[in-house]
Amino acid sequence: MSIKRALYAATAVSLFATGGALADGHAKELTIAIVNNGHMINMQKVAEAYTEETGVKLNWVSLEEGVLREQVTSDTATGGGQYDIINIGMQEAPIWGAAGWIEPLNFEGDYDMDDILPAIRAGLSHEGTMYAAPFYGESSMVMYRKDLADAAGVSIADNDSWDNIKKAAAAMHDPDNGVFGACLRGKPGWGDNMAFVTTMVNSFGGAWFDADYKPTLDSDEWKAAINFYVDLLGNYGPPGSEGNSFNEILALYNEGKCGMWIDATIAASFLEVDGVAYAQSPNAGNPVGANWLWAWAMAVPAGTENAEEAKAFIEWATSKEYVQAVGNHPDFGWGSVPTGQRASTYALPEFQAAAKFAEAEMAAIESAAPEATDLKPYVGVQFAAIPEFPEVGSAVAQEIAAALSGAKSVDEALAASQAAAESIMEEAGY
What is the per-residue pLDDT across 167-187, written as a single tens digit (0 to 9) for each? Predict the structure, then answer.
């Protein structure tokens, strides 16, 4: 679908032949809140063509992940109207859609809704209606320096044991030469350190809540997982890991300072060092939930005066046409297209040639298990799809970061986590 066709369909107004002004003679402006990662930053450049063709000016507000979540949640919940388009994900989309905070997105025709990967579309929908369109989707996997692993005489397998992961990290760890065995998230935030930590806890057989939604952070499984996490990063991670999340570790990895990184599959698009190999996420006996499922998506807050123009932009920015625009862009190319959202991307020969990570990424996404199970009563892998989770997750994140830094023992951090979670859930009526 062309940019103008999308805009025509969404706004039912004409563009002047020159300047792209709307029928009332005024060019529209959209304010867009985005997370400050690579694909979103690239979008600002690619979208210059959208402005040139439509006359719609795009004002970008690029924020660090935790800050974005706080500002977008506050503004959307109160109807503040600061943004026309917001980045949200699978935790928020169905809940906010059900609450009427964001507009439904019903794109038709060339957009090809059926091309969106089923797990991604389901995670952004409520009762069959999609409320946020995926800009990219992801799971998590091991990204490791095979050259360093080979030199150290160790190997990493798909769905490996955590014990073998620690062995490999120890073998590659060479801090005197600036190489750390394992780089993992430690920065506090429900979508920062807790995204990784939750998958580790899942793999040890733990969960956030029991069947009655009572917190279980004082369980043996949580204690085993967090002790392992603190020990692994404390012995084989870079100094100051409690301050590292996605962007910080990406920089370390590209500086050649990480033997392995277990994180979002989307990171593979931005790895610049040689010798990278991929493996499915490790576990401690329970593979279900050992790799997460997420999408950074675009939504329209209810009440914006520019809802139709906002929807038109989202329709373009999450389309097959946008993938082609990035792949053919002189500054980017096929190795930089947003992935994990559309099946058709993986069938493109140009993408297959450029993206050596594609098979591992798709395997991770397809094996993610967001459904409720006997082990966990909630939907979500690295989060719980309930309104209270961001508050619970943020409180626990601070405690886990304190344990990682050495400010608290693991037992102290988990006791405080349990108390905080119990208080939040009891106040919410559970």
Answer: 999 999 999 999 999 999 999
How many helices (H) and strands (E) in the chain? 18, 10
Would residue 105 count as lying in a domain? yes
Query: Domain span at residue 185?
Result: 140-292+370-427
CA 280 to chain centre: 17
Token couple for 21: 């002004």
Phi, psi of 330 (to 5 degrees): -65, -25
> Are 234 and 334 found together in one domain?
no
The mean of the pLDDT values for the chain is 93
Copy the structure tokens of residue 326: 């990035």
pLDDT recorded at residue 8: 33
Alpha-carbon distance 235 to 232, whole Å?
6
State the Cα–Cα distance between residues 87 and 198, nearest whole angstrom.
22
Domain boundary among 303, 327, 354: 354
Report pLDDT digits (tens) over 333-368: 999 999 999 999 999 999 999 999 999 999 999 999
Q: What is the CATH number of the domain that holds 131?
A: 3.40.190.10
Cβ atoms of 165 and 229 closer than 8 Å:
no
Q: What is the mean pLDDT of residues 122-130?
A: 97
Q: Please calculate the CA angle 393-410-249 and round it to the nearest 5 degrees.
A: 60
Same domain, 99 and 149: no
CA distances from 383 to 42, 233, 376 (A): 27, 22, 11
Question: How far does CA 320 lie from the centroid of its chain?
Answer: 20
AA identity, residue 70? E
Cβ count within 10 A of residue 45? 12
72/86 Cα distance (integer angstroms): 7
Question: In whole angstroms, what separates CA 278 from the centre of its chain?
Answer: 18
pLDDT for residue 303:
84
pLDDT for residue 7: 40
DSSP 370-426: -S--SS-SSS-SSS--STTHHHHHHHHHHHHHHHHHTSS-HHHHHHHHHHHHHHHHH
Q: Is residue 364 part of a domain?
A: no
